[in-house]
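Hello,

Our lab assistant flagged a job as stuck in the queue for most of the afternoon. It eventually completed. Since we weren't sure the result was trustworthy after the delay, we are filing this so someone can double-check. Below is the sequence as submitted and the structure that was eventually returned. Let us know if re-running is recommended.
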Amino acid sequence: MSFVEGPPNFVGLDWSKPIVKSRRKLPHWTQEGATYFITFRLADSLPQEKLVALEAFRAEWERAHPEPRDEADWQQLFRETLRRVEEWLDAGSGECWLRDEACASVVTRAMRHFDGVRYFLSSYCVMPNHVHVTVQPFAGYELSEVLKSWKGFMARQMNRRLGRTGAVWEPESYDTLVRDAAHLWKVVRYVGNNPKKAQIPEEKWIRWVHPSWEKAGFGFGG
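-- returned structure --
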């Protein structure tokens, strides 16, 4: 399926404008006004053996891609890492606190609280141990600030609900700039289909797409 224009309020990556590039374990690109596809996961969502496997994969990748590495190399690492992580996450490892309806509600309320004020929230799904979301921060609000606000509020409320203390979320999220309308369509379909892919019963699906996007043909589909 091909698209020329995106839905209302969609702003994709503009190669003519500045892109801020940073790197922790993974590359992060940000651009003012753009739309992002983000995955953030619970702190215990990957068991130790999977974390060891990720480190081994990264070490092997670095040997195969010696310095100097260009941005295409780093983006390849991002894609391959995310593919592995999402397969493991969909297997449902960890305590899966987001299976608890109250905890899942904390997540959705936090994301929707400043929708239309600090950012345009376009779609999300809440999985047992991770969250997918597409969002466009408004001018004056950095993506990192939005994520920090979300995670901080969610962690406090969830710990209170669960009667525990300590880390709730893995600090580093997976984020990518949505390039264009065709990329957006794939992203939104992925967000909407993730519960089915993970074999979660349909009555337990927690997902949402902005009505204006769905009307424009950028909904979850069947």
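-- support follow-up --
The delay was a queue issue, not a problem with the job. The result is valid. Helices lie at 48-64, 71-90, 101-113, 143-162, 181-197, 211-215. DSSP finds six helices and seven strands in the chain.
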